[in-house]
Amino acid sequence: MNADTKSSRREQSHQRILEAAARAVRRQGYAGVGVAEVMKEAGLTHGGFYAHFKSRDALLAAAIEHAAADSTRSLSRTIRALQDAGASPVRALVEAYLADNHLATRERGCVVAALGSEMPRQTDELLDVSRARVAALVERARSALAPDAPLERAFLLASSLVGALQMARALGDEGRALLPATRAALINQYDTP
Question: CA-CA distance, 82 to 159, in Å (whole number)?
């Protein structure tokens, strides 16, 4: 096997580990992610883990970044489609974030909504990565409002989105039924010139 093939296989294995860990951390939280289970889901042996990551925290940090990139791509596509159909940036963000499919796809959704209450109890390494995800969500809200919008207003919008999604998930069908009214209230409150 030549060096390029070996490198390519290693990269593919690394990607499978990241994808499995990103799903697991959103599904089960930080504490629910075990190295053995992630490696098994990735189709690899537990012994190969340290060829890819120096520690479980390093895996979790990379998984959070991977999950964030994945959910950001998905959210961005939906926002772009809504804006192309005539929605304002705020309306597009609110409708995309509080969409039924985002509610249902916890393993593919926003890491802030999936892990928010657990973030402050993590190691410094994980806390830094997690805080960066929160800051990115606030910045996304700020850019939807206006690039010069007060940070506090963006924080309130981002907090409302995350909280509404978390509560809707906790309430199940009842929460899903409350999303249309929540979307309308947030759009009414924040989609103003």
Answer: 22
Give domain status of residue 178, yes or no.
yes
pTM of the model: 0.87
Q: Is residue 40 part of a domain?
A: no
**Overall number of domains in the chain:** 1
Q: Where are the alpha helices (DSSP H) in 45-191?
A: 56-84, 89-97, 100-104, 111-115, 124-145, 151-171, 173-190
Q: Which long-range contacts (CB under 8 A, 24 or more apart) does 171-177 make?
A: 175/103, 176/100, 176/103
CATH of residue 127's domain is 1.10.357.10
Q: Which domain holds residue 185?
A: 55-190
Q: Is residue 27 part of a domain?
A: no
pLDDT tens sequence across 113-140: 888 888 889 889 889 999 999 999 999 9
